[in-house]
Specification:
seven-stranded mixed beta sheet; Aminopeptidase; globular; 287 residues; 2 domains; single chain; alpha+beta
Length: 287
Amino acid sequence: MAYVIPQYPDFNGLKLEARALLDARFKYLGPEISEFTFANLYLFRSVHGYAVSFLPDGNPVVSGADHGESFFMLPFGLPSDAVLADLFKKFSFMKCVSGGHAEALEKKGYAVTEDAADFDYLYSREELSSLAGRKFHRKKNLVNFFTWRYEHGEEPLTDVRIGDALEVLESWRSGAPGPGDYEAAKEGLLRCDELKLCGGVYYVEGAPAAYVLGEELNPETFVIHFEKGVPGIKGLLQYVTMHFSSLLPARYRYINREQDLGEEGLRRAKESWRPVGHVRKYRVKTF
């Protein structure tokens, strides 16, 4: 039976076949929020239990659950008041709400709170590609050490390089304190062509050492979904960040490096790259 996205209130689990129905919509949307690409939703479908439905206005609604609480997301705009009220009856809260939608929902009498752990970090592509100036002094020193100390090279992440990237991922996993986003990262590599992702593989002393994988989020922004490196190579990831940023077309003013998930160590790491701003997201509930 062919995959279909049913009409609300019915939902169907998110499958790869949904890309033909949703991907063009997301591209046309040109989202700022990193979750709102088909690839991101698909790769984290198991983590959040994503399912999808078409509302009466023809726009999709995405449902899921975090820590036992059900939620819904409306990437393409707010529906009628009646449909909105019904969604809030069926789900615990609305997630990944943009600032504009949050303001409109607050005026309608809903309870709005910032979801700071989910804010996306935005960086200047130009700044990351050069690391010029005092604020990047430590990062640039690490890059200089890396390029002086190690023989290194890089290649586009094409089909023939997927095995090298998977080798990096397995090495990263062996040194990580937990599984993290391993499953999503692995599937991202295995399905990068189908999901229209692109990136690069980095080599140190002839061996695979790091890779980066992302996609266009909107005409001004490239989003990094995954950046992994083998442990123990000083300056490696600093070099990868700088070099990959320098390869991106100049039309991208920003690089979105997603959220810190409320983890203090990850927050400090992301702040150390001196973001130029954040994509703020909100949660909305009924009072």
